Amino acid sequence: MPTPNPDAAPDASMDTLRAADPEVAEIIAREGERQESTIELIASENHASPAVMAAAGTVMTNKYAEGYPGRRYYGGCVHHDSLEQLARDRAKELFGCRFANVQPHSGAQANMAAFMATMKPGDSFASLILKDGGHLSHGMKLNFSGTFFNPVHYALHYDKSHPEHERIDHDSVRAVCREHKPKVLLCGYSAYPRVIDFAKFREIADEAGALLIADIAHIAGLVAAGEHASPFPHAHIVTTTTHKSLRGPRGGLIMTNDEDLNKAINRALFPGVQGGPLMHIISAKAVAFGEALRPDFKLYQQQVIANAKVLAASLTEHGYRITSGGTDNHLMLVDLTARDDNLTGKDAEAWLERAGIITNKNGVPDDPRPPMTTSGLRLGTPATTTRGFKEAEMKRIGAWIDQVLSAGMKGESELDKVADTVRAEVRELCAQHPLPHATRCHA
Ligand code: DSN
């Protein structure tokens, strides 16, 4: 867990903000208190360190630096060149690759640039559909990826008697690639709790003459720490966000080992997709990469995985079903209908929030319910692990989740009572494990 840095002077910047704009400062302070006093189980969220946040709020926001180090369209970029080069070098060291573009504002924009670098409008790419664990930018019809390109989807095994039930069906990947001859095969997911076999994906991509893109947004921290196999050398392009398990600022990153692809990616990102880079965020990415290069980051990721396993086991004991039978990474999908047919993700998310446990509703494979209702919850452990929760706390959280959901099924008055009791206990536990940025956010 990152230790609060007494030299980061976070209080001073909040004091400045409070004096200049108390209205904004008040809302931010309340959000700080919310984060401080609730249990964050959203698998894609984390608590960035004070140093990452300090770097994100600096004079680097004042500058246009369109272009890349050494080739800018504006004068005065000397320090921006140094910083972007440092961020690139740290990203390359962290992920063991030759080229890194640290400018994407987000994971979706990283994917957009990767697609533009490898495909023409109308070209096909193969991916997992959103409802089975993919991502908006993996071909959802309203997203750029489904509007300008032609997504074809492979599937999960869906056969309860199959040992690989609810895991990637590599035969389906192969069949879709043989039939459609896509330009790109995309792997990497937003709601997939199992290990991704990048070598197998590359084998299938090679057979189909496709390029392999791995979107490791969710598992980037695990990969960086060597706690999930690396997509290199298998993937031609790797995209990621920097704020999930990697615990940096909100942003994106694109990497490759191929010099020509690197040139195409750089062109596609700027001027293809973006204008000026967010240099303050690139500074914060450099800090986060530096943190992830430290030995304690590996211990953190090991604990993230251990915590996820314990939470999954605890929920199983309470009668819930974890899709695919468990988890290998930082997240799990909880099938609530195993506990009660009428239980929905929408209700569960709302009821748990009343108790200070923050989750997101999520479809389970083959979910008959629509995305705004769902039969499942997606839970992840990066954020709780950052605040120092270990196995014992995970067991308690599993029990609290069941207590609240059981109460919710009994009706409003029972939920009211139990949610209040659990909320108080959650507050107490959170107070024993203050966030690394506590001093920054509190009024
Ligand atoms: N929206 C993110 C998630 O929650 O997984 C993916 O970008």
Description:
- There is one protein chain.
- By secondary structure, the protein is of the alpha/beta class.
- The protein has two domains: 59-292, Type I PLP-dependent aspartate aminotransferase-like (Major domain) (Aspartate Aminotransferase, domain 2, 3-Layer(aba) Sandwich), CATH 3.40.640.10; 298-438, Aspartate Aminotransferase, domain 1.
- The protein has helices at 10-20, 22-37, 50-56, 78-95, 107-118, 144-147, 170-180, 198-208, 220-224, 259-273, 279-292, 295-317, 345-354, 382-386, 391-410, 412-432, 438-441; strands spanning 39-40, 67-68, 71-72, 99-101, 124-128, 150-154, 184-187, 211-215, 237-241, 252-256, 321-322, 331-335, 357-358, 360-362, 376-380.
- It has a seven-stranded mixed beta sheet with strand order 4-10-9-8-7-5-6, with helices on both faces.
- The longest helix has 23 residues, at 295-317.
- Residues 1-10 and 439-443 have low confidence and may be disordered.
- The structure holds D-serine.
Topology:
Layout: H1 10-20, H2 22-37, E1 39-40, H3 50-56, E2 67-68, E3 71-72, H4 78-95, E4 99-101, H5 107-118, E5 124-128, H6 144-147, E6 150-154, H7 170-180, E7 184-187, H8 198-208, E8 211-215, H9 220-224, E9 237-241, E10 252-256, H10 259-273, H11 279-292, H12 295-317, E11 321-322, E12 331-335, H13 345-354, E13 357-358, E14 360-362, E15 376-380, H14 382-386, H15 391-410, H16 412-432, H17 438-441
Parallel strand pairs: 1-13, 5-6, 5-7, 7-8, 8-9
Antiparallel strand pairs: 2-3, 4-10, 9-10, 11-12, 12-15, 14-15
Helix pairs in contact: 1-2, 3-11, 4-11, 5-10, 7-8, 12-15, 13-15, 15-16
This protein binds D-serine.
